[in-house]
Amino acid sequence: MQKSAFRPERGNFASAVDGLADETGLDRTHFAGVQHIQRKDVGVGRSEHFSYRLAGGGQPVTFDHTRRRRGSGRRKAAWRYFCACPKHANLGPLASCRLFRIWPEAANFMTVGKMPALPSCEMDPKPSQTRLSRQGALEQSTHHRATQPFLPEWGSAGYINAVLSFSTCWNSSRHSSGQAVAEEICGLGFRRIELGHGLRAPMVAELLAAKERVGFEVSSVHCFCPLPPEVIVDNPDCYEFTSHRPEDRRRATRLAIQTIDMAERFGASTVVVHAGRVRTLRESENLRRLAAKGNLFDKEYSRAKLEAVKRREAVSETYLQRSLDCLAEVADHAAKMGVTLGIENREDYEAVPSEREIENLLHRLEASNVGYWHDFGHAQIKHNLGLISHDQWLERIGSRAVGCHVHDVKWPFSDHQAPFTGEIPFEKLVPRLSKTAEFVFEMSPRVSREAILAAKERWQTLFNS
How much is the pTM? Predict the structure, then answer.
């Protein structure tokens, strides 16, 4: 494949359409009216992703395509269809429009049958257009054109998928009822919820029962959900993929798989995962102590940081491989359930993977349904320690982000504050993220209702106007 075929800036647009037709196996007439083609690599030499917009009667509909290459050379194509209307855009990426959700048979990548009507949308159906068969031939199907134009991307009036979800971490500890948790969040004006890691099984069951009654959707689920019954105090790291105890690693894997099953029941597209930590090190505490004293730029801090890096590098591969072994099983199950895994960055230097390791981990995992989950507060803490540059890191990894936790940090390490009350420059950083990333407010229980409403209003002014 010629990469330039998908990049009109390197050639004429007609050649880009020809390249797209060749790669999908569809007749070129299928792409009549194409307005936009975008391509990016997902993993080094392992998979590719490109999207294009078709104009139906002047009203675009967007298609996304991800193709994986396996070691045998055999190709599999997973097609995902998205509605372009604002109503579905407000539900966030991969919510109601995801083909795997409304049409389970599409999980059979080698044979994609008739495309159904997209649900809950003001659409004008146009009969008898295309069907994608195993040979890529044009057959009978249903095509839709949106009654609203395609929403803008960065650089104009807004960001199509910067639609907020809200984590139950803020209020689950002060309610005994799952319905009460959802009602309080919906009372703030949120209709998308992330199920946090502090929910016990009875509360999760109540949330599932109240989902239609209260009128909310679940965007994502954080491992482990529900909380294991033997764990008394909420702790997302109660079992870790990197534990030296094989039974703990097996338990962590089983709990992650249960969380994926729960996400599928709620219709959530993503599960957020902690991948572990280097358990033999305790470097972050000393670095924080020195930084809090204002010694961030002196020789003592520089020596301490250098020694921390050396000690971590000496043992990190053992823990990274343990995490990979567990994540491979979890990712396989997630793929079968049509769920994406987001590996979250952590605030401690001992966390696995580090920023230096995350791209290596994703490459070695070779799973197209696994991506990076960016936590703004955790990254800012590492920025304050001089371990990373928050801006440069997001510029490098942002295109691979499937979602993010949004909260602010007050110097030096007080995180999970309301956005725009600390030092994180969201206006600069948010555009670094993938256009399909989820945005989840993850607040401390100490954050006031008024602060959340103010942050939500400013967010919508900046990114959703």
Answer: 0.68
